Amino acid sequence: MPCTTLLVGRDASADGSPLVARTEDSSNGTFDPKRVVVVQPEDQPRTYTSVIGRRTIELPEEPLRYTAIPNALPDEGVWACAGINAANVAMSATETITSNPRVLGADPLVERHGDQPGGFGEEDFVTLVLPYLRSAREGVERLGALLAEHGTYEMNGIAFSDAEDIWWLETVGGHHWIARRVPEDRYVTMPNQLGIDSFDLDDAEGPGRDHLASPDLREFVREHHLDLTLRDDSASEAAVFNPRDAFGSHSAHDHVYNTPRAWYMQRTLNPTSEDWDSGRPGASPHSDTLPWSRRPERLLTIEDVKDVLSSHFQGTVFDPYSSRGTEAERRAFRPIGINRHNALPILQIRPDHPEASRALQWISYASNPFNTLIPMFTNVEEAPTYLGTTTGTVSTDSFYWASRMIAALADAHFAETIPLIERYQLEALALGHAAVHAADEAAAGAGSTEDVPALLAAANTRIAERIREATDALLGSVLFTASNRMTNRFSLSDQ
């Protein structure tokens, strides 16, 4: 599925939380309403059949409770988007990534044909993996085993995190995979393109400190001549190679749809590290060598992550809302903050907080330039009503539908409404941070850890309702502005 992922090894909070953030964007011409749920162990299936692949699998007993952001209309499956389980392990769902004919010929995707089932994909992975994890590394290992046995019908990029680590996994063809641990002092930008640009097979086959992979990856690469690194005769094969060259793509489509997003994210988070407008290889929107990870120029925050994943090439000629540049330039690239966002979860595991209140899932819906985040503690029995009751019927009782209405109304009147949007975003994020601080204090003063989930659930409801009030007020203001700007307006009124 189209999306953009940003991983931050450690954020600016006091305890240096790893952050996993991924926009789930629907395909062109479709919009998938989303809701937040808490899946209890008794509600987790023991036999699972995918809707798209029609593949059936038996699942382990004793799953953990976990959060998820499934489609509100389950006609195409669960599509759980992202979540955090009761062991404070987080998982994003699939970012669809690129490949090339050499890889897909060597290990074809497992597609459904008639009565022959296909492999698993984005629809399935959170449900199949997240309830059974005690660490991020276990997530890589469990998903890797499922890929080897059942295969996938698409190329996938998936993140796992816990209080210590973030691991990023990319599939290679139908059954193979690689994974890298995100360094603590770096961030990773992923725009629907296979991204890992250096991989150490010796580490993957040995201690696995920073690299993990299919057990037969070295043989697979050798047999199919996938390593494109130029070497002298004395080093015809080496452990370290570039997976982006071996397994990925460098197409004209990438230079319109993918690489400009990585360029803009890195331009925003490292503004003085490169001459971003020089067109120099490695620093241009068309570059195939933008690094998979960079060290930011300062510590990053939740707000930095939200801003980057809401961006539309501001400050450049490629901004569709700007008067700069030509019409062709303003429509040249696919924005990060696009109209067809379904949801943005930012998954935060706070290592220095008690396990009972360690995990937060910040959530926004619909088009990111016009929405805001609501924080939700995940050690709870159910999600707040405002986040969890989305249906197929448009209603301001749903944060999803209210956010989509605001975006659709504001987009046509961007200059007039963006000051209202920005004030709302500032107010809502301040309310969110204050609510988290208050809930942390309440949890710290709880009589026992058994009392904490109820305290956190009440805090989730309070902040959701406060932001609901702000969202309703913004919708009213944007509606008033848009109504006054209608084409059939006439300035003369009755005497």
Outline = globular
| Share in helix | 25-40%
Low-confidence stretches: none
What does the radius of gyration come to? Answer: 23 Å
Count, helices: 14
Mean pLDDT: 96
| Spatial arrangement of strands, main beta sheet | 17-13-1-2-18-19-20
The helix-and-strand class reads: alpha+beta
Which sheet architecture does the biggest sheet show?
7 strands, antiparallel
In short:
The protein is of the alpha+beta class. It is 30% helix and 17% strand. The chain has a seven-stranded antiparallel beta sheet with strand order 17-13-1-2-18-19-20. Strands 7, 8, 9, 10, 11, 12 and 15 form a seven-stranded antiparallel beta sheet that branches. Strands 3-6 form a two-stranded antiparallel ribbon.
Account of the 3D structure:
α12 runs parallel beside α14 (452-484) and α13 packs antiparallel against α14. It contains 14 helices and 20 strands. It is of the alpha+beta class and 495 residues long. The protein folds into two domains: 3-352; 391-488. The mean pLDDT is 96. The strands form five sheets. A seven-stranded antiparallel β-sheet has the order 17-13-1-2-18-19-20. Strands 7, 8, 9, 10, 11, 12 and 15 form a seven-stranded antiparallel β-sheet that branches. Strands 3-6 form a two-stranded antiparallel ribbon.
